[in-house]
From TrEMBL:
UniProt KW keywords: ATP-binding, Cell cycle, Cell division, Cell membrane, Chromosome partition, DNA-binding, Membrane, Nucleotide-binding, Transmembrane, Transmembrane helix
Pfam families reported in the protein's UniProt record: FtsK_4TM (PF13491), FtsK_alpha (PF17854), FtsK_SpoIIIE (PF01580)
Superkingdom of the organism of origin: Bacteria
Composition-biased stretches (Basic and acidic residues): 183-197
Segments crossing the lipid bilayer: 21-40, 60-78, 87-107, 127-148
Example GO molecular function: ATP binding
Name used for this protein in its record: FtsK domain-containing protein
InterPro entries xref list: FtsK/SpoIIIE/SftA, FtsK_4TM, FtsK_alpha, FtsK_dom, P-loop_NTPase
UniProt keyword Nucleus present: no
Gene Ontology biological-process entries: cell division; chromosome segregation
Gene Ontology CC, one term: plasma membrane
Amino acid sequence: MSKKNRQGKNFEPRLNSETKKSILAVVFLGAAAVLILASFNNAGPLGNFLYKIFEKLFGWGYYLLPLIFFILSGFFFASKDQKINSITFLGAVIFVLSGLGLIDILSPRNSGFVGGIVGAVEIPFGYAASIIIIAVVIIASLLTTFNFPVRLDTFRKKDTDENKEDEEQILATVASANGQQKSEPEKQKVKDETKEFETKEFEQKSFPKSASLKTEHSKLKAKGYIAPPLDLLKSSVEKPTSGDLRTNVNIIKRTLESFGIPVEMGEINIGPKITRYTLKPAEGVKLSRIIALNQDLSMALAAHSIRIEAPIPGKSLVGIEVPNKASAVVRLGNLMSYPDFSGFGPLGFVLGRDVNGEPIFSDIAKLPHLLIAGTTGSGKSIMIHSLLTSLLYQNSPETLRLILIDPKRVELSLY
């Protein structure tokens, strides 16, 4: 009986993170409204008393309090991936304090007691330098509060869009030239080395929680078990940066032809981590000659390492896999939202995505002696966590029993 009671306590329903954020957002919004009313003496005796105290402490900086509360409220209402932690509130406190210091430097009579303490930074650094220092602290505190990184990628977005438009224009030009006979001089042929090739871009589809997964959860709920919501997992969609496709096609073609291997370029598959360029060698060319040029192609493409798949299974083509400039993060929540995932049964688990960006699922019942191996940093731990998470989402404690052995107590300590 006591065992059943302990099990019942372990599965008590709790507020999820989104509900907690909504509650905090409402509280911040209400606090901001009360502070504004207090500044107009419309918050009752207690509110007016607090206003007088805060005004003496903060001076004009009093109005920073409702401002930061309004901002935090809107941020928690709008953000899906932001987690609640002490760093967020610490950044907000630093923002208010640094704002008080800036007010003290600009207008010492209106900074209040706290502003006078923070504004003392003007004594050792002087007027101009102290303004710069406090401005830096204000910006850093805002970035800390909202966990918002400033990257050069934001400013390079325009260049990336232009490159994509250039690639689309190239593909359109090559496609329009398909079927036309090439009777131009050899010099013109060298300029148009890139023959027609089809580009299959990596695309992460975003699905709502699949109906079949909802059905499984409803079955588990009927048995007295509340399955964790899929919203706990991140499902953001990202796209990789594959680089200049036309340049890479030309480099591969010219490098192979310089070693006496004529090839015809095929389609391009853009995956989350690599881009695969397919090619068809001329008749009589041994595949071993292409494989032997692995390092030469890697140097020509300025890639850390490439992989040559000769031939591609099921195709009479050779694949050259080149790492992307920037990989796309494949989210477990996004893959588990696919309708196909539930078709693998209660022992199905997520493996990842292939080079074409298509999801890969499997059934652990078909892999009774599964061995996960790889180099350091290749994703073995992520694979283990994905497997266990997939099983936990589809089974209740009554239907799933696990024996986890971790001699080093590193990978499985969370469980």
